[in-house]
Amino acid sequence: MYIMTERLDLVIFGATGFTGKYIVREAERLAKDKHFTWGVAGRRKDALEAVLKEFAPESENIKIIIADLKDEESLKKMAEQAKVIVNCCGPYRFYGEPVIKACIAAQTHHVDVSGEPQYMEKMQLEYNKKAQDAGVYIISACGFDSIPADLGLIFTQNKFEGDVNSVETYLNFWSKSNVGGALLHYGTWESAVYGLHHANELRGLRSKLFPEKLPELKPKLKTKGVVHRSAISEGWSVVFPGADRSVCLRSQRFLFQKYKQRPVQVQAYVTFKSLFQVIQTVLVGSIFTLLTKTQFGCNLLLKYPKFFSGGMASHEGPKPELMENSHFSVTLFAKGWTDKLSEPTDQHKDAPNKEMITKVTGTNPGYGATCTSVLLSALTILKESDKMPDNGGVLPPGAALGKTSMIDELAKNGFKFEVISSIEK
Asked: Pfam families under this entry (predicted)?
């Protein structure tokens, strides 16, 4: 393993992008308390200087590194100057792999905020062994996708004190601002368009990545109807199409294979306050899904994001006041048993006799909580790699960080993890 003297602790690559700018701001805030060294990287020195002046005005001697995705040598030189690369350049399916290759070559850890299952699982398939051999961790989904859900599930399992059979997650958003406008930046929209366009790749990819089936778990968790009401989350809920479920299941598979821990069945939902919001979202989602089936349809979605998203996405992104006053919660409903069987493949003879509700809450999910969680993920690698598995690899956050103090660090920096109720029948 490289002796990482003289390297910066973190380098934020893509610091001039919409998300990158806010990660720079959060890096300045966290560095005052945690005292780490950091730098920024991108194609243009003047643009990077402007970002530092606006988003990190109190920071001095922040190193600027010129790196271009089209120049492999520049990526490697960037990686050689950092202990961890915080990669903000998406869509990752197009721009993520060259950075990962450079990090492995330079023996540098890598974190990103991808919510793209195809990219994440392809990287695990192709680079897990190489990352282990290099002694580096490659961890995606370290932002809002999917830290609250994945570490929320780890938190729930730790608090349950028994065998968890299934967990249903319910995502809620709300705002305390009267300011309207887009909630998503164009980059997030672009990732979603191409993610769904290539969704048919997942089946073949997963057959290679997971050749062995997990043990059959009973009782089987069934998906709720197209639209349903739940006592767990007030309003109307539908299946959440994001990456949370796939990320959680990857962590659960890893924990089963590595630590012989019973894997949890997972289903993810998102809740809306009114039936009108559900109908509106389903309509927009149906058109979105239909258009992503062809390249022509994708081009339309990318050309007119505001129109096809119903105003949810734009090139400008959300306004600062809207971001600062937006909130989220992920409520997790766990069912299982009070007793723990000796083997993860053993079957309980009785019906589940315990239920627990936990919740993860925070503010500004897309461009606040995301920035905090990806930076804390990077710092946790540096400080607690001895609590992480396998000396490296391509892992989801729950698998990589579940045994570290990551949940406690998140709780000190704007997140809240809590047990709402626990009932034994």
From this structure: Sacchrp_dh_NADP (PF03435)
Sheet containing strand 228-230, strands side by side: 228-230, 233-239, 265-272, 163-175, 326-337, 354-363, 416-424
From 325, 398, 392, 18, select the one nearest 190 (Cα to Cα).
Answer: 18
Identify the burial level of 157 via C-beta atoms within 10 angstroms of its C-beta, where 0-12 means exposed, 13-18 middle and 19 or more buried: buried
Query: Mean pLDDT for the chain?
Result: 95
For residues 247 and 141, the answer to whether their CB atoms sit within 8 Å is: yes
CA 337 to chain centre: 29
Of the candidates 39, 168, 191, 220, the residue with the CA atom closest to the CA atom of residue 117: 191
Q: What are the backbone angles phi and psi of residue 419, rounded to the nearest 5°?
A: -90, 120
Q: For residue 173, what are the CA distances in angstroms to 47, 193, 327?
A: 33, 21, 6
The answer to whether 90 and 114 have CB atoms below 8 angstroms apart is yes
H or E stretch covering 335:
strand 326-337
Q: Is the pLDDT of residue 147 over 60?
A: yes
Identify the pLDDT of residue 183: 83
pLDDT of residue 181: 79
Instruction: Please tell me whether residue 395 adopts helix, strand or coil conformation.
Output: strand
3-state secondary structure of 417: strand
Percentages of the chain per state (helix, strand, coil), in multiples of 5: 45, 25, 30
Let me know: does 43 contact 54? Beta carbons within 8 Å. no
Q: How many helices (H) and strands (E) does the chain have?
A: 16, 16
Count other C-beta atoms under 10 Å from residue 176's C-beta: 10
Q: Which residues, at least 6 apart from 228, have a Cβ–Cβ distance to it below 8 Å?
A: 236, 237, 238
Q: What letter does residue 226 receive in the DSSP assignment? A: S
| pLDDT at residue 1 tops 70 | no
CA distance 385 to 414: 24
Residue 106 corresponds to which tokens in the numbers above? 């330079």
Element (H, E) at 331: strand 326-337
Residue 254 CA to residue 103 CA, distance in Å, equals 23
CB 128 within 8 A of CB 100: no
Where do runs of H (alpha helix) occur along 214-263? Answer: 244-259
For the record, the structure tokens of 108 come out as 């540098």
Dist. CA 88–CA 95, nearest whole Å:
10
d(CA 343, CA 341): 6
